[in-house]
Amino acid sequence: MDHRRVAATPSRLALAAGFSMLLLAGCDGAPPPAAPEARPVRVVTVEQRPTGEVIALSGTVQAETQVNLAFRIDGRVVERAVNVGDRVVADQLIARLDRENEENGVRAARAAVVAAQSALVEARNNYGRQRDLLRSGFTTRVRYDEATRTLRTAESQADSMQAQLSNAQLRLGYTELRADAPGIITARGVEPGEVVQAGRMVVQIARQEGRDAVFDVPAQIKNLAPAEPRIEVSLTMEPAVVAQGRVREVAPQADAVTGTFQVRVGLIDPPPAMRLGSTVTGRLWVHGGPGIEVPATALTRGEREPAVWIVDAATQTVSLRPVEVVRFDPGRVLIGQGLTTGDIVVTAGVQALRPGQKVRLLGATP
After folding, report:
1. What angle do the packed helices 100-136 and 141-173 form, to 10 degrees?
2. Do residues 179 and 25 lie in contact, with contact meaning Cβ atoms separated by under 8 Å?
3. Fold type of domain 99-174
4. Fold of domain 65-98+175-208
5. What is the distance, to the nearest Å, from the Cα of residue 170 to the centroid of all Cα atoms in its chain?
6. How far, in Å, CA of 305 to CA of 299, rounded?
7. Averaged pLDDT, 85-108
8. How confident is residue 22, by pLDDT bands cut at 50, 70 and 90?
9. Residue 126 carries which DSSP code?
10. Which residues pair with 318 in a beta bridge?
């Protein structure tokens, strides 16, 4: 095959040059690239206002008054008439001791009283005779004085024996333990057949005078509480069952193990569902000083520190500002430093922003 080289003529070069100039002219007239669109964000204008928080603690319902019933004398328990959970009324029999010794004591005291009364009658008769004889001059003053002393001794002896009989009868009565007020048995300390000492707890009674919600409160929370706080108490398992309460008693000394203070909250007209031993939740509103709160969604991180995005109202751009977080919960964040009243804070879309970015406020006039 015959290969021939095509020579570049001047006319062809001129044509190529003109075509290149046309292309360059077309490039010079292209429109500039469009500016990036402003990102829509939700914002809030912050202001200082009084702050506070709700503190919730768990506790139990207890009787306002709990008493330990015990025998006043020693003895062997022959009967316990109640068990834990029983309701009792005033003067109801709780337990009984063996009565034999006390019954013997009563019989002996009665015999002593009879003997003392007989001696007293004889002394009175002798005194009367000596008095009449002294008036008639048929006895001496010495015998009269002796009859007087004998009468006084007999009277004292009769009083003493009567007092011993009363004590013996009281001891006999002490062999029966009875409730002094209506209530519920919450604990028992002895069983029939046991020999008990005076003062040992036989049963514990929760009186029906009132109900307390008892909480173990840390020291820092106790110090934050107002002077006369009002507590809202609800059943943990049934939050709809609610009662109001007032602090009735605060332990003066912390528990040696937990370091908490026991606080008793008197319940005002508690519902029947708040039974003894029920687990309850107490809520207390603790007021704080003035501060700035923002939604938790506004919080982000800049240079390993908490920060929020601030909108410049004039330029509609954002900048990252570090803040000090005082308190954080799932819904709100309390800011200590970094924000002032009137700052516009981005609350939604914070993860997609960059410093100096244009934004469009949702709901605002464009």
Report:
1. 160
2. no
3. Helix Hairpins (1.10.287)
4. OB fold (Dihydrolipoamide Acetyltransferase, E2P) (2.40.50)
5. 43
6. 10
7. 95
8. very low
9. H
10. 311
Contact at 8 Å (CB) between 268 and 246? yes
Per-residue pLDDT, averaged over 222-232, amounts to: 79
pLDDT in tens, 58-88: 999 999 988 999 999 999 999 999 999 899 9
Is pTM beyond 0.70? Reply is no
Map out the domains of the chain as residue ranges.
Answer: 40-52+290-361, 55-64+209-286, 65-98+175-208, 99-174
Cα-Cα-Cα-Cα dihedral of 235, 238, 241, 244, to 10°?
30
Please list, residue by residue across 260-269, b when 16 or more beta carbons sit within 10 angstroms of its beta carbon and e when fewer do.
Answer: bbbbbbbbee
Angle at 116 between CA 103 and CA 122, to 5 degrees: 155
- Residue 288 has a pLDDT of 62
CATH of the domain spanning 40-52+290-361: 2.40.420.20
Tokens of 335: 């800011």
Domain 55-64+209-286 class in CATH: mainly beta
The CA-to-CA distance between both ends of the chain, in Å, stands at 75
**Rounded to whole angstroms, what are the CA distances from 207 to 64, 90, 199, 235?**
7, 10, 19, 21
